[in-house]
Request: fold
Amino acid sequence: MRVDYLRRHLHALGEALADGADVRRYFVWSLLDNFEWELGYAVRFGLVHVHYDSQHRTPKRSANRYRDFIADVRRGG
Reply:
């Protein structure tokens, strides 16, 4: 679901740019799994999974897709 969510938002961003929107930056909320005030640590958000005990971080599939998207844009794709 996260990959599709990110894909749809980046597509909408591209449409806004094509329509003349003055978009200067885009960032994904949130980069890391974090504490969500309503749900605590029960639901994981972010592009990078955090193992809370060890603080080890592992990129999720959505992080790889976002990386590939940025690389493609830089190549002019």
Remarks:
- The longest strand covers residues 48-51.
- The longest helix spans residues 2-18.
- The chain has one domain: 2-74.
- The chain has a mean pLDDT of 86.
